[in-house]
Amino acid sequence: MPSSCWMVAMAKLLLLLLLSRGLYAIEIPLDLKQPPTITKQSVKDHIVDPRDSAVVECEAKGNPMPVFSWRRNGKFFNPGRDPRVSMRRRSGTLDIAFYSGLDPEDYEGEYQCFATNDFGSAVSNKILLRVSKSPVWPKEFLEPVAVNQGLPLVLPCDPPPSVPPPHIFWMNSSMMPIVEDRRLTVGLNGDLYFSSITVNDTRTTYSCNARFAQTIQQKSPYTIKVNLKLTQQVSYLNHSDLYSARLVAESVPSFLFPKGTASSKVVLRGKPLILMCIAAGVPTPTITWSKKVGDLPRRKLRLENFNKTLRITSMSDDNAGDYICTASNRMGATSHTITVRVQATPYWANKPENLVLTSEDNGKLICRANGIPKPTIQWLVNGEPVDSVPPNPRRQVAGDTLILRSVQIGDSAVYQCNASNEHGYLLANAFISIQEAAPRMLGPRNQLVKVMENNRTFLYCPFFGSPLPELRWFKDGQIVGRDGGHYKAYTNGTLEVRHARLDDQGTYTCVANNRLGKAENQARLEVKEPTRITRPPEHLRAIRGSTARFECRAKHDPTLPITVTWKRNGRLLVLGWRWKEDDFLAISSVRREDEGNYTCTVRTELDRASASARLVVLDRPDPPTDLELSDPTERSIRITWTPGNDNHSPTKEYLVQYEEDYWEPGRWKNLSSYPGNLNSVILPLSPFINYQFRVYAINAIGWSKPSRPSQRYQTSGAAPDAVPGNIRGVGTWKTRMEIRWEPLEDTQRNGPHLRYIVWWRRRDSREEWKNITTYWLRHIIYDTDTFTPYEIKVQAVNDFGLGPESNVVIGYSGEDRPIAAPTNLRVSKTDSTKATVHWTPVPSKTIMGLLKEYKVYYWRESSQLKWLSVSREKKSKGFNVTGPQPWGVLTGLVPYSNYKMHMVVANSRYEGPASSTVEFQTKEGVPAPPRFFRIQQRHMDTLYLDWDRPAEPNGILTGYTLKYQVVLVPLTVNGTRGGRTQLDFPPNTTYYSMNRPDRYTRYRFSLAARTQVGVGEAAVEDSPLFTNEGEPTQTWWSNGLTKCERTSCVCTRLDRSGDTNLHKDPYKSAVKGWSEVIAMTYFDSYTREQVDIATQGWFIGVMCAIALLVVILLIVCFIKKSRGGKYPVRDKKDLPLDPVDQKDQDGSFDYRDEDNKPLQGSQMSLDGMVKMQESDDSLVDYGEGGDGQFNEDGSFIGQYAGRKDRDENEGNLGSEATSPVSPLYSLA
């Protein structure tokens, strides 16, 4: 049977045995009489520390309570007689106190505990008590070990024996551990093996160290002395061989451990196997392992210490066999076979169990054990061999079975079964109790058992009774577990429910019966919905710095609370600020270390469900490493690098940059890029540059950091291989030409002392090339002819030689002023704003340079309207035309004007002489808008319009056209939006007045001047709004609708495309006829129903109050005048009195003589001050002659006249000046 199948079968068998033992074990309640049972004991091999007290455990139960006793080394041991030993109360555990003056080894030995009561004795295992030891390593003087170079050597350790065995390690003279390698090995027994000796082995000492239980001991160090012995047998030399320099003879491998060609080893089943092979030879041999029959168990096998150690963690029977160790070098090979046998300590096949019987019952105890070799079985009763106790006719021993027939009350006892072989033993206690008892339930009552659907569960009903009761299970009054199905009832009272279903929920009753009575118990079973993950996490690829999100949604039984945990690579995640958990796991700012397998686990108290997904973090690649330069040439070098980790995003490209330390040190420039699958490329280089390189790796995420710079590489120099760029010859003066060019780049210099050779000569001449060498980027040629073509070329040169010549470039010397003017300048065609100009060109040689343009200078001399003054600003326009009959068009001219012009020819630097001046006229055009256009509302029902003539009539005015249209109509007017009305006026009319039907009707006026050509641009104005009109709001009208929803409306056009944006001028629809769709703007007046203010109640009330107040004031005034009064005149002494006025002695006037005669020359104002009438100027009152009139500007235009003449001319103006409120102030 293969190893894996055997292990599965053994696991199933072990599970079945454990389940069977658990189901059929008999538990007697402690309140019933019963023999003793051992419940706790120390391990068989018990090693204690001498610095502490030793504790040997032994615990037991029984009724009556057991009494404990001990045997040491097979003899009775009385703890009470030794003051250092005590036994705990109600226990058999021994405490042995180690203290000063006591040798702990005196208490070493084999201990066995006996627990006894009235019904028998139970015994423990034989406990071997040993005290751990740290022996002293005896001091010894070790002579230096002399050995020939190349021979093997073994340095023995031989530590003193101890319990437990020591751990061995070797150290050198520097107190550092010896590092094992292919040549140097520490064996399983602790010895140090040298496969061969070298001179280097003499540089230190070697000491063996043993770590005991309490201390570390060191053996005296070894010193190695190497004898340098040369041999003639040298088969092969290699410069890398450790021994070649000394000419050490090579040898065939031989085994230092184990010796010979074959050996054997016994290992116990389940224990580890360690095999070691150490071989000598030069060169040092290589160790390999194989198995004679079958393959090595790779799953459990590990090769360690340079393959010299083979380790199998747990041995099984199929691991037995012949293991072959082979040592080989180039001189040969040798093998050693290790036969491995697997044996086993005894293990239970059928362990005896307690029996509870009644009188006259029969029973048997079975004790079966396996092992290699086969164990022997020995029966004991109450700790004594069955053969040594008085015989019992009702007891019979038949090998591994003990049979009891017709037992009686006195047959209660404890039987022991001992199964042993050479590797160990097993001891089991099993009692036989003779008693009668009614059934009783031993477990808790009314248990609640929860199970997941389709899972297996057990309902436990432990019971006891003698004779053994019959137990049955009931659910809903029906017996379960007898007919098979998914129920199974065990004799110990357990009911197994296989594949629980929802209809298995309910209450189960177990009933135990024997002849002495009945007992029952209940258990409730609840079947829960299993937990499952409905949306498991999915594999993610996230860019570093982004947020990764794993979903994990589960469905579970609603009565069971759940907990959700996340693990990364098997380790529980501690959620911090970067981790958020809800129905998902969110990882913010993803890092590289976040990569791994994420497992979501949803747990309830009964089950759990898990799902996993992997997070892959995408990042920029790691920088390339290990840059290496090779294969150098004059113009190239190979660069090789080791690619860095691409971080899960393939490298698409590598970018190589360079830096040179002469022209721009420290500045890195791009050299070339290469596909991402290359790591070795040839770089193109330029001469005479000290290069240093670095490499970037580029993937879809971004650029890596740059690699570490490579070593520098200096290319050799060479002549330039590039030509200067943008070579040109430019005339700077009429007898000079400047040759210019762009320099070579730094990487094109190719050597030191770069300079330029400039070549030139006249074109179409046979003269020799002239040249000059310069470091500059230009050269000036003097004494040239005016505007003469030259052939030019430039060549770069350095200390290594000449570079290639450039192509020949044509340049020109400087230009001079043209010497001729265009002739025959004329105008062939004109209209109101344009004129076509013709001329005869000048000869090309008179231009004295390169023709740039023919330029016309023109200006408006006057208007054809004699009275109109104009600006004579000069303008120009160039015509870059060639040909025998050139022409051009002047635009932007003012209509009906007189113009003058002349023309010059221009080259790149100068303009030539002007041609003769030519006059021409533009034709009549349409006028400009009127200079101003005003609309005034001098009365509420009249509009007054006035305007001025256009600033530019552009011809003879024939009149004006006025158009107007109603654009705002009150709702009280049952009319429609009016059509346009047009009025024509003669040119000398500049005003117009019209009646307005009501104050709320609003008009849009458009006024334009006319000439014979047509109507000019119109000026548009709106009539002013009534002052009480409110803010506008909007509603929409379509074409043809005439009624608004509010008080008044203004029409606004929408664009023809249907766009809802309103036109900038909301009233042009009335003027231009835009009436497709109209937006109406309506205004709220100060009253909703547009009722006249005179009809409002509040206004009538205020007017009545004012009228009543005036009546009262008039009555008071009348009464005051009837009574008369005296007013002081001292304050009015500058006012002359009438000759007929009478004056009292006190200087006051008496009104009784002049009833109803007002004060002359004054009017009392509301503030009580005297206000002079418009014609009552003081000069008029006291002057002589004249009207006393003033012009509109306030200038005096008349002679002074007397008061009487003024009264006659002005009639009753004085009486109108009397204020109705004057009497109030008279009363005051």
UniProtKB/TrEMBL annotation:
Protein name: Neurofascin
Domain Fibronectin type-III: 623-718, 723-816, 821-925, 929-1030
Domain spans labelled Ig-like: 36-124, 138-225, 253-341, 346-433, 444-526, 530-616
InterPro entries per UniProt: FN3_dom (IPR003961), FN3_sf (IPR036116), Ig-like_dom (IPR007110), Ig-like_dom_sf (IPR036179), Ig-like_fold (IPR013783), Ig_I-set (IPR013098), Ig_sub (IPR003599), Ig_sub2 (IPR003598)
Protein's organism: Scleropages formosus
Family from the record: Belongs to the immunoglobulin superfamily. L1/neurofascin/NgCAM family.
Signal peptide: 1-25
Membrane-crossing segments per the record: 1098-1119
Membrane topology (UniProt): Single-pass type I membrane protein
Pfam families linked: Bravo_FIGEY (PF13882), fn3 (PF00041), I-set (PF07679), Ig_3 (PF13927)
Biased composition (Basic and acidic residues): 1130-1157
Annotated localization: Cell membrane
Keywords: Cell adhesion, Cell membrane, Disulfide bond, Glycoprotein, Immunoglobulin domain, Membrane, Repeat, Signal, Transmembrane, Transmembrane helix
Protein's gene: NFASC
A Gene Ontology biological process term: axon guidance
Major location category of this protein: membrane
Region (Disordered): 1130-1165, 1177-1228
GO cellular component, one term: axon
PANTHER family: NEUROFASCIN, PROTEIN SIDEKICK
Gene Ontology MF annotations: cell-cell adhesion mediator activity
